[in-house]
Amino acid sequence: MEISRLMVVLGGVADRKMLVNVTSRRRFEEALAAGEIVRVSRGRYVVPAVQKGTELAHAVTGHVCLASAALAHGWKVKVVPVRPQIAVPKDRRLPATTRRVMEVHWIDLAHTDVEGLATNASTTLAMCGRRLPFDEALSIADSALREGFSRQALLDLADAAVGPGSARLRRVARHADGRAANPFESTLRAIAAGVPGLSVEPQVWIEGLLQLNVRCDLVDVRLRLVLEADSFEWHGDRAALRQDARRYDLLVANGWTVLRFAWEDVMHDPGWVASILVATVQRTEQSLLATSPA
């Protein structure tokens, strides 16, 4: 996979070690030289749209916002915007040629809402929670918590919110969890959140018989159900294949149901993923009912 495509899969932000491991040192250096990735700090790289968004925001005296601002803060996103998302004052008039190269959001921002040429962390999370689809907003909130934003601060921000989108923001804050590994896993958890009877927790260690001791992506302890978002940190050797096979065999032998989901299905066919989850939950609930004491 080309690094430009890989960066989109990884949420728009990645470290050098990841990119080199998945591709090669030569391909990494070529991508950097070609401008397919941009260095923002030691060992950390983002999609070039971040730099382009900053340049456009400066040109129109606006501010990078929403997912574009999340990327500027170094947070991973489910969807890398095709055009940079720029906030401009409500009374600002922009020519059609300018609007075609950016996604314009007319909103009046206070000086306390911005940091440089982007909305600050709190404003970015508030805007994303109010305006983006649940899975996209949750991916950004999870990443923000993973990078050090306080969960209590997010909850307080949501509790104080009023007006359009405030209920959506509170839902995102309630579900946000910094233990989530990446947007792939966050999106799978967002789908699971809409399935009746299913309550999953990210990055749970499971121990059991036959020396079972593994950390799983998403776990519903009550249903003994494990959801795995198969990682993009590929391992191409037989030893890794054997390790993965043993991992799942041990979980099944200990009475766990394991569902493995591909990135393409989670990101592009959530209805199919939800249908699998609904059917599995219903079957498991029926089995629990049949085996419970009368």
TrEMBL record:
* SUPFAM superfamilies in UniProt: Restriction endonuclease-like
The organism encoding this protein is Nocardioides glacieisoli
What Pfam families does the record point to? DUF559 (PF04480)
Q: What is this protein called?
A: DUF559 domain-containing protein
List, for all copies, the residue spans of the domain called DUF559.
Answer: 217-276
According to the entry, what is the taxonomic lineage of the organism?
Bacteria, Bacillati, Actinomycetota, Actinomycetes, Propionibacteriales
